[in-house]
Amino acid sequence: MKYIVPILAMLVLSPALNAADIAAGKARAAICAACHGTAGISPNDLWPNLAGQKKTYLVRQIKAFRDGDRVDPMMAPMVRSLTDTDVENIAAYYSSLK
Questions:
Q1: pTM
Q2: What angle, 0 to 180 degrees and rounded to 10, lies between the N-to-C axes of helices 55-67 and 84-96?
């Protein structure tokens, strides 16, 4: 019993287990390219560049759009079906770009 807590802590804190999947994020973000560019650099000043943004910032913003805390008629349908894992993966992908 005394070993259960340290083992659980190692599992929860393990970066490998909590790491986002950049390849999955890239695949899921394909629809984002129409506005945010194929490499996360927007072709239009109306939409922000996503490449190189901090992962935590992207996660927060995507979830805010998805959950209705931020309202945008173009973003809402794009993010409505994203799971938390999708959001983490997409954010990891865009934050990995320079």
A1: 0.81
A2: 140
